[in-house]
Structure formats: C-alpha cells, structure tokens
Amino acid sequence: MFTFEVLPPPKGSGIDSVYDAIDPLMEFEPSFIDVTYHREEVSFREFPDGRIEKKVLRKRPGTVGISAAIKFKYGVEVVPHIICGGFTREETENGLIDLHFLGIHNLLAVRGDNLPGEKHFRPTKGGHEYASQLIAQIHDLNAGKYLDEEIEDATPTAFTIGVAGYPEKHAEAPNLKSDIRHLKAKVEAGAGYIVTQMFFDNTKYFDFVRLCRKEGIEVPIIPGLKPVTAKNQLHTLPRTFNISIPEDLQREIEKCSDNRSCRQTGIEWCIEQSKNLMRSGVPVLHYFTMGKSQSIREIVARVF
Predict the structure, then answer these.
(1) Quick one: how many helices (H) and strands (E) in the chain?
(2) Count of CB atoms within 10 A of residue 99's CB?
C-alpha cells in the first residue's frame, strides 16, 4: 500500500494542475492522498532542474476546498493538513466543522512554518503554539466539546489524527530524544498515527521507530520518501528539510553527467528503499511528490 502528498496550486491556477499530478498515480490505488497547507504565504517549489525554493506567494487556495474536490472526483480518502500558524481556535473549529460536513474525517495536524523572515514560530493571537494543543482541540470535538460551552447535545466529530515525525529530528529540537518526547505528547493528546519526514537511509527510520517504541509510542509510523531528481539537491534537500544524504547516494549522484541520469539514480535508490521497507513490514509507504508525479509513478509501478 502507498500514499502520496500533493500541494494546492498557487493562487490563480486551476484545479487541473492538481488533477494532472494525481491522475498518473490513481491506477495503483493509493490508500489516501495527503493535501498540504502552508502558513499564509510560504510554499516549497521544485523546479525542473531540481532546485527546491522556499517561495513567498500571495496565498494558495484553501486546503478544505482542494480536499473536497479530490475526494469527490476520485472517491479516495483525503488527508488535509491542519496547521496552527495563521488560525485562531475559532477559525480552526470552523474549518474542522466544514471538513466534518464534507465527510473528510482523516487529518494531519502540524504546527506549520514560521512567517517569512522570522527565525522562530510565532502563533496567531488566539491560536495554538504547539501541534499537541491543536490535536487536543480536535480530540475535544471528537468528544462533542465545542468552544461554545453553551451548545447542548453537540454532535461529536469522528476525526482520525495523524502527526509528523522526524527520524533525524526537527530542525528546532536540541536532540532526537527530546524531539521524540514531544512526539509522544502529541500521541498522548490524541494522535493515531505518524508520517515521517523524508529520509534516504532506512537505518534512520528503523532507529527512529525503535526509539519511539522504547518511549512508549505504539501508533503506526509511516515512512515518508522522496527521490532525488537533480544534482543540486545534494545541498538543497539537507538545507531545506534538515536531513542528511548517505555517502553512497552522494557518490552515485556526483557521478551523473546530467540531471536526467541523476533522476534515474534517485528513482533506483528510492525503489530499493521502498522494497526494503516493505520487506520489513511497514504499514504503508508515503511519497512526497512536490507537485510532480512522474518519478513517483515509476517507483510505484516497480514496487507495487
């Protein structure tokens, strides 16, 4: 089984750009499609030459609307991101109610990015500072507890909540063990599964799972993967996502004469990663498309 992530298009673009990224993968029957949400005006963009840029945009269309469009076009489970930054608790509740009415009951709750130019996360006034607080609010709605305490006989929601995990630690965490303790707090607040940040060395994932289990985290941990598609990603991926590139992969990429051969090397590496993880009994594989599905399609076709 596999899942994948798509990005809402920049404001002014049509829904067809989202469908174009999804269509090539639907024949392989993904378990769900994850729809990202970026705080206010921050987005990651991958260029044809492999550069990844953290770009400031006016704003992307709402994830709720994109998620509904995908759900009703393809009849597939959709998992929208719900973020802390940029929203008050009341705005969060209103968005959750809309998702509940649409029959979208699986969420990925994340803190979200810093504002452009800010080194530290600054929560919206009246909003949440930590993902664990956001998860607690969703959990309260599942129990029929709304912000307006005067509501009687409130209908409970039925959200399943996923969270992000970082096999090489979050960029702001002092160390991995500390980061895992924060992850445990999110699970204790009501998270039912974890999706990891991308990694290129499966040992990082297996060690992360072992440490999580040792800490008492027993929920499923879904590995997140992305193929390298250009030589300069040896530098941009570690810098952008706080991850490392294995030496063996680095050497193979550096041997490539152009980005076409680099892309194929990245695909082959990701296929071997995927097969190894599947043999180890992972619950599902999650792929980051960055809005481009061609490489992911080649991988999925050979793994599944």
Answers:
(1) 10, 10
(2) 22
Q: Tens of pLDDT along 259-292?
A: 899 999 999 999 999 999 999 999 899 999 987 8
> What are the CA-CA distances from residue 20 to residues 66, 70, 133, 138 (Å)?
14, 12, 35, 32
User: Can you give the residue range of the structural domain that contains 299?
Assistant: 2-303
Domains held by the chain: number: 1
Write the DSSP string, 151-174.
Answer: --SPPP---EEEEEE-TT--TT-S
Q: Look at the block and give the residue holding tokens 């969703």.
A: 138
Q: Name the DSSP class of 136.
A: H
Alpha carbons within 13 angstroms on the beta-carbon side of residue 165 total 33
Q: What pLDDT, in 10s, does the model give residues 130-145? A: 999 999 999 999 999 9
Q: Is the pTM of this model over 0.85?
A: yes
The number of CA neighbours under 13 Å toward the Cβ of 197 is: 18
Compute the distance between CA of residue 120 and CA of residue 99 in angstroms, rounded to an integer.
30
Strand partners, 80: 35
What is the CATH number for 179? Answer: 3.20.20.220
- Asked if residue 146 lies in contact with residue 97, where contact means CB atoms within 8 angstroms, the answer is no
**Residue 52 dihedral angles phi and psi, to the nearest 5°:** -115, 125
Whose tokens are 């709720």? That residue is: 64
